[in-house]
Structures are given as structure tokens and as C-alpha cells.
């Protein structure tokens, strides 16, 4: 039986109202944002200190995904050095343990030993997300901050699919973090006021999501890695916007997406060697990982963030908070404001990750929810 959202889509399709992609002007404007961010990010963020001083975080427990390199590594180190309990949710546990050892040695004599632990999480596997969430929730402890940082941009690579059957950018950058965020709600409620911070990207401005073709397999559009990456980042904002609306104010959970800027990390690992060398030769324009970590650190710790999220909710703003690389509230793309499409992305995402449509409400009420996603 077709789902209600599919029936609505079919109706809108017949009326010619379902958008098939970004218009030329929207697309050009999107690329202009990307170019402006590249050339002017240092000027935009010139008021920020580096490293960014953090408010007291001794009482907070923070799960960070993908912190064995780049921005995530900086987030884990800086939050731990500022006193937070940091959980490194990673697929390469050996690398994470080696990093902890190095950080503890460097930190020795400067304060209490760092409070960091490692847990296994592979976002290419929804099973791994469920196992991680079950193990964490079973502790019955609070979670104050979840930072969905891990991400991939397989530049120039052909289209690849996860074992769950989903296009890999969509799974790693959007579907798996969405599942993680929803399944961890019971712990986030215990840690309330708490936050879900998604490390997003300016590239979402050139992204488009067709909720009926999240895997880009219908043949309507030709897949490219730029399309896969930008679409997954836009899907994350659209899903987060509805999650932000669905969470009752009393739950005390803020949801925000942040843009780190254009940052010199391992994200360029799939670029041709020559382009990689070029990337490292332009340090004036490109942020260091420490500079790139500032917007996520701001989102995770600044006391004004929950207030701002509440304000957006009270105003029934179509999107969740979007914090720019200069740590200022900003607006995501025009398409991210397309509320009908955001609801369709929300419904389709829940279907793909195997959660019932009332999962958020049930988990907030303390009920159990099981998830039934596909596995090939
Ligand atoms: N760098 C930029 O210019 C830029 C710009 C905008 C947004 N971002 C976003 O910033 C975030 C961090 O990226 P980065 O630039 O710091 O890149 P990075 O250095 O490549 O770090 C990505 C991290 O994600 C982890 N990861 C990848 N696939 C994973 C999986 N299946 N399961 C668990 N962890 C996985 C990686 O772990 P492994 O080491 O095991 O692969 C690594 O720790 C991403 O969401 C990215 O989209 C980056």
C-alpha cells in the first residue's frame, strides 16, 4: 500500500507542484555562497579567537562521532582538555586509543587526567548505530551533547552503496546520524538541557533532495559525488528542522546545524594528489582543523544557543538553528526553508532507518521503540 506521503507526492506530481531540482538562479546563488565562503571565511571569522575559549564544561558528557581526524579530533581534544567527559564514537578504535594516550601525555601536569573513552560506531552500518545507542542508553546516564561530526565526501568516486542498500554519502552524512540522534533521545532527555549539534556544510546550498529518490537511482538525475554530498547535507538540515519542531519545549533538547568553513582535513583524501598538494598550499584561505572546530564548539557550549533555538521554535521558523563558520546565527539555503519538502524528507528518512512515524514522541515519553531497516 502506498504511504500517505507517497499519495501526497503523486497528487502534487500530477499538479506539477513537486520540485525536480534547484532552479538555475538558486543553483548559481548556491555556488556563489560556496565561493564567497572560501575567499572570505578568514575575514568573516576575524573576530574569533583561536583556540576558542570555552565556558565551563566540567559537568557535561559529550558524544562526538568521527573524531580520529580533522574537525572531530579537535572537538574531542579541546572539550576533554576543558574538563568534559568525552566519548569518541569511532570506527577505528585503535587510532582513537593512540590519540588518547598522546593527549594524556601532552596534558600531564596541566590538570586532572582527561576523561575520554572510546566506543565503536560505524555509520556505514545501521546495525552498528543501533548497537551503539543500546549500549549507551543501557547506562541510564545523562547525555548533554551529541555532536554528529563524522562525514564523507568521496570526491570524484563512483556511486557506492552501504550494506543497508543506501547511497554512502546519504547514509554516513544523514541517515545514520539521524538514527543515532533519535535513538539517543532517552539519554538526551536525562541530560536536559541538552543539544544535538550537526556538523553541516556550506555545500548544502547547492544540494537538492528528492525524497522519492534519496539514493539517486531513478535515473531522473545523473549521480555525482558533489550531488551525493550536498544532497546529504541538505537532507540533514531538513530532517533536523522537523526534529527541532517535533521535540516538545519541555524536553529541553536543542537541535542545531553548524558550518565549519572550508577546512584542511582528511576530507580531501580522495582528491587527485596534485589537487591535494594545491589545497595544502593555500593555508591563507583554508581553515586549520582548530579554526574549523569553532562553530561546533560554539554550538555545543555557548549558553545563548538553546535560547536562540527556543526563539526559532516559538516563531515557527521553518528551519532549525544554522550557525555559520563565524559562530553567528545564519540562514541555510532557500531549499532548506521548503517546509513541505522537509516534512517529506523527514517521513522518508524515518522509513529508511526503520523507525515508526511517532518514534520521537514515544522515546520522549520513555517508551521503547524498535527499528526495522533493510539489510542486504
Ligand atoms: N573539511 C572541510 O572543508 C569541511 C567543510 C564542511 C563540512 N565538513 C564536515 O565536517 C565533518 C568532519 O569532516 P573533516 O573535514 O574533519 O573530515 P575527516 O578529517 O575526513 O574526518 C572525518 C571523520 O569521520 C569519520 N568517518 C568517516 N566515515 C565514517 C563511518 N562510516 N563511521 C564512523 N566514522 C566515520 C572518519 O573516520 P576514519 O578515520 O575511520 O575514516 C573521520 O574521523 C564532516 O561531516 C564533513 O562533511 C568539512
TrEMBL record:
It comes from the Eukaryota. Gene3D superfamilies: NAD(P)-binding Rossmann-like Domain. InterPro entries: NAD(P)-bd_dom_sf, SDR_fam. The keyword Isomerase does not apply. GO terms for molecular function: oxidoreductase activity. Belongs to the short-chain dehydrogenases/reductases (SDR) family. Keywords: Oxidoreductase. PANTHER family: DEHYDROGENASE_REDUCTASE SDR FAMILY MEMBER FEY, RETINOL DEHYDROGENASE. This is Uncharacterized protein.
